[in-house]
Design brief:
By secondary structure, the protein is mostly helical. The protein contains one helix and no strands.
Length: about 45
């Protein structure tokens, strides 16, 4: 049972990590989009 638990823990950790990475990438994209579009809007 320990192996199964460890395996599930590993997969849940991997899933959470991927979600965090994805969210951070999205946040960076939003920041870059804002920084790119702001000067264009000002002009």
């Amino acid at each position: 049972s320990r192996r199964c638990a460890a395996r599930t823990d590993y997969y849940t950790f991997k899933l959470l990590f991927s979600l965090l990475l994805y969210s951070s990438i999205l946040a960076k994209r939003r920041l870059t989009r804002k920084s790119v579009h702001e000067p264009i809007q000002h002009y």
